[in-house]
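Lecture notes, continued. The same structure-token format from the folding unit now serves as the input rather than the output. Read the line below as a description of shape only.
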């Protein structure tokens, strides 16, 4: 009889152990799904690392010009579809713009965000993060919804850059001559230096705020 009780107790402990370890695992999986996409109101602000992927009008988000946002982490997948006007984290750049979108109420359309690589073509409203520089320009592009387009690369000694490029700390651009590659700006040569030179040219629609790109209101300066 005592042996039966021991076996019964052991079986009960085994069941309890399985339940103890399996429930947190299931919960963790659920939390993982929940962390992938969230719904918030636009007046709450966008959490760091997230982008707005959809926006609509909803009774759950009352108020004038208040929208219900669906947000997801930008992650490191390489390409993210987001609403054009959503903040986004470094080092993502805008590689496509569609000024017509039925899923991004309150925004200027939709955009494609991509992790940068040497020679990638980006849309002119994009933030150009350190240490990337502009190596070419085009006035308009269907890829960017009518906005200008630029080619970027990481800073390197002797690289030909356009005069509207930001110049990273520790680098300097010298010379200047006309070039179809950089139209309507000049082409310069990049050199490593201890001084910091600031690029000239048009202000971006987006501005940097730490490691985040946010839409410019024109009041930041």
């Amino acid at each position: 009889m005592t042996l039966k009780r021991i076996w019964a107790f052991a079986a009960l402990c085994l069941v309890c152990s399985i339940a103890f370890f399996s429930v947190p695992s299931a919960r963790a999986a659920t939390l993982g799904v929940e962390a992938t996409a969230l719904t918030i109101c636009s007046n709450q602000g966008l959490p760091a690392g997230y982008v707005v992927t959809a926006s609509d009008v909803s009774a759950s988000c009352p108020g004038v010009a208040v929208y219900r946002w669906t947000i997801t982490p930008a992650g490191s997948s390489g390409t993210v579809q987001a609403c054009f006007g959503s903040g986004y984290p470094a080092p993502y750049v805008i590689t496509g713009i569609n000024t017509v979108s039925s899923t991004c109420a309150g925004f200027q359309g939709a955009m494609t965000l991509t992790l940068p690589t040497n020679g990638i073509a980006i849309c002119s409203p994009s933030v150009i993060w350190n240490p990337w520089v502009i190596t070419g320009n085009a006035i308009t592009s269907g890829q960017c919804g009518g906005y200008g387009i630029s080619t970027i690369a990481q800073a390197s000694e002797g690289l030909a850059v356009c005069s509207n490029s930001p110049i990273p700390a520790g680098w300097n651009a010298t010379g200047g001559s006309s070039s179809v590659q950089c139209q309507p700006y000049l082409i310069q040569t990049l050199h490593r230096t201890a001084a910091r030179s600031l690029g000239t040219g048009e202000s971006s629609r987006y501005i940097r705020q730490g490691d985040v790109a946010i839409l410019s209101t024109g009041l930041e300066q």
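Point for the exam: The first strand starts at residue 38 and ends at 41.
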